[in-house]
Amino acid sequence: MQASIRFRLNGQPVALQTDDGRMLLGALRSELALTGTKYGCGEGACGACTVQVDGHAVHACTTSLKQVQGKEVLTIEGLARDGKLHPLQQAFIELGALQCGYCTPGMLLRAEALLRENPQPSRAAILARMEHHLCRCGAQQRIVQAIQSAARQMGATA
Predict the structure, then answer these.
(1) Are 36 and 76 within 8 A, CB to CB?
(2) Distance between CA 78 and CA 7 in Å, rounded?
């Protein structure tokens, strides 16, 4: 049975027709052509597909379209504002916190949610939050440094 699902995506209203079991990741990538959200494992274990729903980091591969009805969804394509990179994006670039970049969009969205909840997280808090992401490139130290750098910058501009 088809249902109409309405939500806001990166600040814009969206309406999609869907079956009961359709996942958000498939709609983002194939129907809405937002390919920054990556398919990793399809089981919610690797973090590559992380987006935000109402400000909370979730795995798009295990979130059904029905679950985003009436909610705000943020993808990596919506993180930058007014043509300027988000401080996290800038810090990841400046500190070399990305290598292949495959897992980076999900990490940025999870880190942004963390900094909104805790503007000055400890190293332990960052590590605990980011443990949901698998990065095979070995950039963990630079990722933590980039999140700390962005937190300092965001605190200075607040």
Answers:
(1) yes
(2) 14
Residue pair 51/73 in contact (Cβ under 8 Å)? The answer is yes
Burial of residue 13 (number of CB atoms within 10 Å: 0-12, 13-18, 19+): exposed
Instruction: Write the pLDDT tens digit of every residue in 98-125.
Output: 888 888 999 999 999 999 999 999 999 9
Q: Which amino acid is located at 99 in the chain? A: Q
Beta-strand relationship, 56-59 and 12-18: unpaired
Give the start-end residues of each E strand in the chain.
3-9, 12-18, 50-53, 56-59, 72-74
Q: What are the phi and psi torsion angles at 66 (to 5°)?
A: -60, -30
- The predicted model scores a pTM of 0.93
Closest CA to 76 of 98, 94, 95: 98
Question: Can you list the domains of the chain with their CATH numbers?
Answer: 3-78 (3.10.20.30), 87-157 (1.10.150.120)
Rounded to whole angstroms, the Cα distance separating 15 from 68 reads: 11
